[in-house]
Automatic annotation (TrEMBL):
It comes from Cystobacter ferrugineus. GO terms for biological process: polyketide metabolic process. InterPro entries: Cyclase_SnoaL-like (IPR009959), NTF2-like_dom_sf (IPR032710), Pathogen-related_defense (IPR053218). Gene3D superfamilies: 3.10.450.50. It comes from the Bacteria. This is SnoaL-like polyketide cyclase.
Length: 222
């Protein structure tokens, strides 16, 4: 499956590294991110390979740009991957969140919520990122597995994975591979910027792999 693209490809379709490099005036949260090592790991460990220009690669590149901007660009007005005044997102049919909501609360908190294994209501943007960057110091990676429908409503299956080599809220790491799978439906504008995206996955399946037996789960305390 492929998709027709304009002669001059817009920045948000050129890939994450291109967006990072074109950062004049961008307000980074903690400096310009570097994905060099991530790119090497993903190339080695991914389970699907798609041809350049395929719809699968277009979707994967756009989502990676979005995830980078959500995590590293402090001002949603500088996110090139979305139509900011119309963008919204939710998880498993829950409450919709805007770009400003994600920028304020953080994607981990919005996507995980309050569970027996993690309390999003007790975390900030920075603390949530600290938790999972500590748990997965080598990175937590993402790939598209299948794309089921083309724009304007793009449905696709994905995989997240990483190695549990750092502590999670006091629990010692196991070194084991952690994987989660899910589906998303992204509605996009004519220029393929994201208007809204719905995610569907079992967050407890992910958290049980790192939190079973940890002090947070055992006592209910932070």
């Amino acid at each position: 499956m492929s998709i027709a693209k304009p002669a001059t490809e817009p920045l948000w379709l050129q890939g994450r590294d291109a967006v990072v490099e074109n950062d004049e005036g961008v307000k980074w949260r903690h400096g310009r991110p570097d994905y060099h090592l991530t790119n090497i790991t993903v190339h080695k460990e991914r389970t699907r390979h798609f041809p350049t220009g395929s719809l699968e690669m277009v979707v994967e590149n756009l989502v990676r740009v979005f995830e980078m901007e959500v995590s590293h660009k402090a001002d949603p007005a500088q996110w090139v991957s979305v139509v900011r005044d119309r963008f919204r997102t939710n998880v498993n049919g829950g409450t919709w969140g805007s770009a400003d909501d994600i920028a304020a609360r953080g994607s981990y908190n919005l996507f995980l919520g309050d569970t027996p294994y993690y309390k999003a209501s007790e975390e900030t943007f920075d603390s949530s990122h600290d938790v999972f960057h500590t748990t997965f110091p080598e990175g937590f990676f993402w790939e598209v597995l299948e794309v089921y429908s083309p724009p304007p409503a793009v449905s696709f299956k994905w995989r997240h994975w990483g190695n549990f080599t750092g502590p999670y809220k006091g629990q010692a790491p196991t070194g084991q591979r952690v994987e989660i799978f899910g589906m998303s439906v992204a509605r996009v504008a004519e220029d393929l910027r994201i208007l809204e995206v719905e995610h569907y996955y079992d967050n407890s399946q992910f958290l049980r792999q790192i939190a079973t037996g940890c002090p947070v789960h055992a006592s209910g305390a932070k």
